Fold:
Amino acid sequence: MIVYSLEIKSTGDIFYVGSTRNSLKTRLKSHRSYRSDSNQSLKKILSENRDDIKIEEIDRGDTYDAVFLEAYWIGQFIEWGFVLCNKNLSVKSLNQKTKKCSALFTAEETELIYSLYKTGDYAAIAELNNCSKSIISFYFVNNLNSVPEWAYMGIKKYYGLPV
Structure:
């Protein structure tokens, strides 16, 4: 799978990170068709900059790795100051989540976590946090870059990161 970024060519602003099994040309065409995207912020940027969008490969991995690579690159671009319109990662939603005691791993922490990750980690972290394995796996698979404070602390403890 290919992990890619979408960029406004004239400004150099990267506004989206995603992954695809298709060619980049096919994926960009799909984004431009608007039908494939339920993300209203993404639709707006694409429609306002229709002929000024660049898609670029930023990483590559098998299906399993791509989930983690995409999360890593989302975190990295946010850390570099880009405002991404990925669902749940707009500036507004990040601020709302922060107020709700969510936390963000740094790019270095995310990279370390993924490099140390093993299949059994969900169960061990869940046990540390007195919650179900499925709850922890949800954050690893869907959004490691914005987890509840309790999961954040448990994950940091499990991987030996400073708390």
In short: The longest strand covers residues 13-20. The domain at 2-79 is CATH 3.40.1440.10 (GIY-YIG endonuclease). The CA atoms of residues 32 and 47 lie 8 Å apart.
